[in-house]
Each structure stands twice: as C-alpha cells, then as structure tokens.
C-alpha cells in the first residue's frame, strides 16, 4: 500500500520510482534472454534504489554511523591519523572506543572512502553514504557473474536481483543498521574476492590471483581477519581436488602474499605510532569471542533466528532446500563443497562467539543469495513445465519476480521506519531536532567553545555538526580551571535535572544553553 502514498519526499520518490522502472525493464529483457541488457538495466536501477536509500535519513544515525562520520570527517585533515576527539582539549581519560583520541576501533579503508567522498562532495549525509551506493551497486555485477559461472545466467540474474531489492541492504546504505558503512564495505570486498576466485576457477588467468589478493586485503582493512574467508573456501577446494600436492597450492599462497602485503603496512604503522591504542584495539577484537561486548549477546540459535531480518521472513525455512539445489546443480565436487562450506563456517564461528550482532553473518550474503536464487530458478522451471502457452508463461514469471522484489524491498516497512507516516515514529523527529541545534550553535557560539552536558552519546553528532569538542558531563573545577587557562569558552546544556556548580554559575563567560537535546544514549 505504501508506495502509492507520498510519505517519502519528492526527491526520494524520484529515485525510488525511476529505479523501480529500470528494474522492471531489466526483468523484461531477462524474460527475452537478453542478458547483457538485463544486467545493465538492473545495475542502473540498483544505483537509483541505493541512492534512494542514501537519502532516507537527513541526519546521522546512532549506531554506528555517527562515529564513522566523525572519524571520516577528521581524517580529511590527517588521513593517516584516525581520531574521534580530534581536539582532546579537556583533561580526562580518553580510554574507551566511544571517547578516545586515536580511534583504532575499526580498520581504516572504509573510513578513507568516507573521507574521500567528503573531500569531493562536501561534508554531508549523502556524501557520507555515497561510498555505500557505489560499492553496493557493483554487487550486481559480482553476483551475476558468480551465479552465472557456478550454475547459469538465470541464477546469476536472480542473485543480483535479490541484492538490488534487499531491504537489509537499503537499511545498511541508509546508515540505519548497526555497523552500516563498515558492513557494506566488508561485504562488497569479500564478495568481490569470491567472485574473482570463481573467475579464476573457470579461467585460470593469472590476474584473478592478483585480484583475489587485493580484494581480500581490502576486506581485512575494513573489518579484520574474516576477510580471509576466500582462502578458507580455496583451501577446501584444493584439499578435495588436489589432496596435499603442495605445488597445486602455489597460486593460493601467492594470492595470500598479496593480501598480507596490503594489510601489513597499516598494522606496522599504528603499532609504531600508537602502540598502546593498537594493543587496546587488538585486545578488544579478540574479546568478541570470549565476551558479550556492549551487551550484544544471544543464544546458540541467534543467527538462525536473525536470518529472517537479513534475507526475508521465509528465508530460514527454505534455505536448506536452496543449499540442496545448489549442491545438485554443480557437478564439480570441490567447488560445491567449498562454496557451501563458506556460510557454514561463518555461521558456526559467530555462533560460538559470545558477542553477537545480526549483521556479522551477512558477509556470506553472496553464497546465500545464490542458494535462494536456485529456488526461484527451480520454481520458474516447474511453472514452465506445466504452462505451455508462452505468453501466459512470461506473464506469470514476470509477476513472480515482481512479487519477490516487492516482498524483498518491503516499501511499507521502509516508510514506517524512515518517514513520519506514523506519529509514534519519533526517531527521525528527535535526531533532526538535535541536528538543527548543533548546526545553530556552530554559527552562534565563539570559535573557541567547548560544549558540556550533551545528552548520552549525542556528543558525537555535536562534534560532527558544530565542530566544537563536546562532552556528556559537567566539567569539574579542575577541568574548568584548565580550560580557562587555555582560553576556551565553556558552553553547557541546561536540563531539568542539571545542577550547575557555583564556580560555573559565578563565571559570566560561561554560556548556558537552554535547548533540549533529545534522543537516547
């Protein structure tokens, strides 16, 4: 029902409707077996759908977009020095990932991408999300080629179509889901490494070995060692196909060497320049397996339960059939076992880890979507066997694909989350309100200001929009005195529960801000 109502603004609707039209044209070309035209229009439509996603929220989202945006913005001034508090002017412990000076909580590649986009297009929300749009759109090409090589062009097309209409992809690109930009970059580079490996398996051309190494290295520089996933699959394939004939492993080791050469320089650099912060970051990475960090916990079936969030409500109930079809369609035993092992090992690994977040397993979306595409292909072939009239056959297939796409994209839920369709949706109201306050303060406060008593972790958005160092507490007398010596202007948000100390009340240079920061933490 939602797409026919104007809950989205006109700009969003133009991208959504034009992108949808191009995808419909793509389906028509697909039905006519004009594969190049079908993929070309699908790619163009996907770009517009993803641009629609990037325009959904005209503010920084909470987890974790605001952190990535701020670090990306700070990198513009010093690309090799990732900072959260770019100017740690207040004397305090900058000892956590959410309040540190040198920010090594994530590997840097996706942050450099954000920095470059800011440099080219200016510092704004659309520029922040444009790397997501560009990278994600190429999943259409990667997934089509991988599905086509492994099985056939139809499965390749359906795989790409599932990516282009994915609700979860739209949510990640919009910045609404946790780990958004980080997850997108990681997914794309891991998928690219699997695509390059598939091309290598069917062509044995040397340049695919190089590309596998590059893409895997890029994946690690986004989200650490799961970026080596392609080598797990490659190793399984070699064991099944060549046993332990080590000469047959030389291409794998060459590619792995390229990956190491890409990843190692950054690790050496940060260990040399920021040894304490680097060790803290590495330690935090390792603790994900043994501790439920930041409250992200779940049971043994957590990732099976959340599969419906990633791939649709019925995905958990049909994915087994998809794996069976995938297994039966591929005749090369090494290839089929290697690809099936990828989601199995990822789901097993993250199920054993104590820290659990729904998007951790999305890194294997490519093989999962290929399996789901096998089901679509199977249903369409069964329909074709029972319906002999070509026109009726084409109409029913067209309607089935449209139904799958509409269900997958779920426009109604997107409107519920990203628009004011329902009055109960206060999330965009509050964050838009906060953005307006912070941007207003940028113009009104002295350039040497430091903001205090910013609610929760909204000090991150405050620093992004206002440019002022911002904190969520009231300064102690020592901190106040230190800032006075540094000739800083102190500005404090006054709330109903705030008791302003006398040393601040009695200082006429202290600015009291009588505006309410809304939101959460």
Walk me through the topology.
Elements: H1 10-31, H2 35-54, H3 65-75, H4 109-121, H5 125-137, H6 139-150, H7 153-164, H8 167-174, H9 180-203, H10 206-223, H11 229-242, H12 250-273, H13 275-290, H14 302-305, H15 307-311, H16 315-329, H17 333-352, H18 365-386, H19 390-409, H20 411-418, H21 427-444, E1 449-452, H22 459-466, H23 477-485, E2 489-493, H24 502-505, E3 511-513
Parallel strand pairs: 1-2, 2-3
Helix pairs in contact: 1-2, 1-19, 2-5, 2-7, 2-8, 3-4, 3-22, 4-5, 5-8, 5-9, 6-7, 6-9, 7-18, 8-9, 9-10, 10-12, 11-17, 12-13, 16-18, 18-19, 21-22
Total of DSSP H or I helical runs spanning 4+ residues: 24
Following the backbone from N to C, one meets helices and strands in this order, namely HHHHHHHHHHHHHHHHHHHHHEHHEHE
> Oligomeric state of the chains?
single chain
Q: Can you tell me the overall shape?
A: globular
Mean pLDDT: 94
Tell me what portion of residues adopts beta-strand conformation.
under 5%
Throw out a few tags for this protein.
single chain; 521 residues; mainly alpha; 2 domains; three-stranded parallel β-sheet; 65% helix
Structure explained in plain terms:
The structure is a single chain. The chain starts with 9 loop residues before the first helix and ends in an 8-residue tail after the last strand. Helix 1 runs antiparallel to helix 19 (390-409) and helix 3 (65-75) crosses helix 4. Helix 24 (502-505) links the parallel strand 2 and strand 3. The protein has 24 helices and three strands. It has two domains: 2-418, no CATH class; 427-513. It is mainly α and 521 residues long. 65% of the residues lie in helices and 2% in strands.
């Amino acid at each position: 029902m939602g797409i026919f109502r104007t809950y989205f603004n006109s700009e969003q609707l133009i991208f959504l409707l034009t992108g949808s039209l191009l995808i419909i044209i793509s389906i028509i070309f697909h039905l006519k077996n004009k594969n190049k035209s079908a993929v070309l229009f699908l790619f163009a439509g996907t770009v517009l759908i993803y641009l629609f996603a990037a325009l959904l929220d005209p503010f920084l989202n909470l987890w974790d977009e605001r952190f990535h945006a701020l670090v990306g913005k700070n990198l513009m001034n010093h690309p090799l020095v990732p900072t959260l508090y770019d100017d740690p002017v207040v004397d305090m412990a900058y000892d956590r990932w959410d309040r540190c000076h040198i920010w090594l909580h994530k590997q840097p590649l996706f942050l450099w991408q954000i920095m470059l986009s800011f440099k080219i297009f200016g510092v704004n929300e659309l520029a922040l999300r444009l790397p997501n749009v560009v990278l994600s759109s190429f999943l259409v090409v990667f997934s089509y080629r991988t599905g086509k090589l492994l099985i056939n062009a139809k499965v390749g097309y359906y795989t790409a179509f599932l990516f282009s209409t994915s609700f979860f992809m739209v949510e990640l690109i919009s910045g609404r889901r946790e780990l958004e930009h980080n997850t997108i970059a990681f997914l794309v580079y891991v998928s690219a490494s699997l695509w390059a490996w598939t091309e290598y398996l069917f062509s044995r051309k040397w340049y695919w070995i190089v590309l596998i190494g590059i893409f895997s290295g890029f994946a690690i520089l986004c989200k650490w060692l799961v970026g080596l996933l392609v080598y797990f699959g490659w190793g399984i394939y070699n064991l099944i196909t060549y046993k332990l004939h080590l000469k047959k492993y030389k291409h794998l080791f060459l590619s792995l060497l390229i990956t190491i050469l890409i990843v190692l320089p950054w690790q050496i650099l940060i260990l040399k320049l920021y040894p304490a912060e680097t060790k803290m970051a590495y330690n935090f990475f390792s603790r994900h397996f043994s501790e439920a960090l930041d409250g992200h916990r779940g049971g043994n079936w957590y990732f099976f339960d959340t599969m419906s969030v990633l791939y649709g409500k019925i995905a958990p109930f049909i994915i087994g059939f998809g794996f069976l079809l995938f297994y039966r369609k591929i005749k090369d035993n090494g290839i089929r076992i290697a690809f099936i092992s990828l989601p199995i090992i990822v789901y097993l690994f993250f199920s054993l880890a104590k820290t659990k977040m729904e998007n951790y397993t999305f890194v294997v979306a490519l093989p999962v979507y290929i399996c789901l595409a096998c089901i679509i292909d199977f249903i369409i072939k069964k329909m074709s066997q029972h319906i002999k009239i070509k026109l009726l056959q084409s109409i029913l297939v067209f309607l089935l694909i449209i139904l799958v796409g509409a269900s997958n994209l779920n426009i109604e839920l997107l409107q519920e989350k990203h628009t004011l369709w329902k009055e109960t949706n206060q999330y965009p109201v509050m964050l838009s309100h906060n953005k307006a306050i912070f941007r207003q303060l940028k113009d009104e406060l002295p350039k040497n200001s430091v903001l205090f008593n910013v609610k929760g972790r909204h000090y991150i958005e405050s620093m992004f929009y206002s440019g002022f160092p911002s904190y969520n507490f009231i300064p102690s007398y020592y901190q106040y005195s230190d800032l006075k010596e540094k000739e800083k202007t102190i500005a404090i948000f006054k709330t109903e529960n705030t008791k302003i100390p006398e040393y601040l009340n009695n200082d006429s240079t202290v600015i009291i801000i009588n505006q309410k920061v809304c939101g959460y933490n």
